[in-house]
Every structure is written in C-alpha cells, then in structure tokens.
Request: fold
Amino acid sequence: MKYLIIIPARGGSKGIPNKNIVNLNKMPLIGHTIKVALEISLLVQDVHTIVSTDDEDIKQISQKLGADVPFLRPNKLSGDLSPSVEYVNHAIKFFSSKADRPENIIILQPTSPLRTTDDVLCAIKLFNKS
Reply:
C-alpha cells in the first residue's frame, strides 16, 4: 500500500477520562479524525486507514464509524510514556506479515478535530513534491 493512515487512540487518558470517545459536536472525538481519514481514502489512491488502540470501547466505536481496527495494541505499547514509534512499528509489522507493507505512514491524532481533509491533502502533496 502507498499510504497507511494510523489513528492512535489509547484508552488510558488521565486528564479527560475516555477522551477519544467523548462527544464533541454530537460525534465522538475520534469520529472527526476517522471522517477525514475516510475522505482521504476516497481521494487518494492506495490508502488504508486503521485505528491503533488498546481499548475495546474505542475499537467498537471506531468500527461503527467505518474505521478498520485490525488488532488491539498491546498494553506495553499504550502507556503514558510509550513513544509513538512503538505503535507505528507494531502496525508496520502487522501489515508486513500480510505482504502489504506500507510505503508511507500518516499519523492523524484524534486530539486535532479541527484538521480538515484539505489540510491532509496539502500535506500529502507537499510530501510527494519533496
């Protein structure tokens, strides 16, 4: 695959419990990011979007919103101090075992709900130019 969009959403948020599934403007916070990612999948060839989570509730809500959640992230990769590279490597290994290794990774944080589809498209175009 050309692009793998990873939406990281762990369940152990402390400041706002369950923040990724708290409603913001009548939609779970993660839903705003899933919506943008799915729109990107329609506009850019060879894009696959996943939610990387350790939480069953986030998994179920994400799937209801149309996202693929092909695995639950291990707890050891979901702590407060776990570096992002760990969940990225976990996803790459998962897809490599399926002979569909992604060429490029796009990380869309659920905590940036004001990001638009155009913002991501512009970032992809800029990336492809360089």
